[in-house]
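Here is one chain, start to finish.
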Amino acid sequence: MTKAGPTKTGERTNLVLGTRGSRLAVWQAEWVQARLAEVAPHVTVTLRRIKTTGDKVLDTPLAAVGGKGLFVKEIEEALLRGEIDLAVHSMKDVPTVLPAGLDLLCIPEREDSRDALISRDGRSFDQLATGALIGTASLRRQAQLLHRRPDLRVEVLRGNLDTRLRRVREGRFDGIIVAAAGLRRMGWVQEVTEYLAPEVSLPAIGQGALGIEGRVDDAFVAGLLARLEDPATRVTVLAERAVLARLEGGCQVPIAAHATLKGDRLVLEGLIASVDGCRLIRDRIDGPASGALVLGRQLAERLLQRGGDRILQEIYGRA
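Its structure:
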C-alpha cells in the first residue's frame, strides 16, 4: 500500500489521492492525476476510492438524510489520519466550514455550470407534456421546475449519473435534470436534450467546479496544486459559497447562487424557494471582484429580507 504523508524533507515521490468510487468521481480524480503528472512527472499519484455516507444511503432523499458533508466526510477523515494526501470533490458537495487542519488548496477551471434536461422523447422543457414525470435528487431543481411548470410531477431520483440515465432510457421518467458538467466530463453530451438557462434553473452553488482539498501544513502538495489553480473560478465559487454560508444551507434547502466575472466586476445571482416552488425569491448584485465574499453576504441578506427568512424558517421547522 502506498504510504501517505510527508517525509522529513517535505519532498515526496508518491502521493495518495482520495475520491468517491462513482464513474464520474473517478473520472475527476483521474483528470487531476493526469494534470499532476504534467506538472510533476517525478511524482506518482495513486487513487484510493472511499465510500461516503451519501454513497451508502441510496434509498432516501438527501434532504431526509440530514447533515452536511454527506459526500466528503469520510474522505476528509482519511486526510486528517494521513491515509491520503489530497482529495478531489465536486464543489457543490463541499460544506462551507471545513474541518480544522484542512483547506481547499486548489480550485481548477470550472466546467459548464448549467443544469441539463434529458428527456425520453426529445422534448424541450417547455414542450414537456402536462403532468410529465421528472426525476431529480435536488430540491433546488425541484423548486425551480415547479415554479415555472407547476403541472409537472417531480420524483426523487438518486444514484450515479449512469444510473439516472438508464432510468430515463427505460421509460421510468419522462425526463431527468442533471448537471451539465458531469455529462461533459463523461463524454455524454449527446444525451442532452436542452441546457437549461439560469433563468429557468439557477445552478447549485459551486456546480461545475472541482475542489482539491489537502492539509493546511502540507506545503509540498500545496505547491504542486498551485499550478492547477484558476483564480477566476475561485473568485466566483467563493462568492457563491458566501451566500451559502450566510443562509446556513445544505441539501435540504432549495437555495442557489451563481457568479460570473465581467472584467474586474462580479455579477452574482441567488434565490431561495419553497420546496413546492410556490414561492421563489430571486435577486442579483454586482460589484468589484475583489469584494466577492462581501457581495455574497450582501446578496444573502437581501434574499432574507425579501422573505427568504420565512421560507427557511418553515423548512427548518423553526416557524
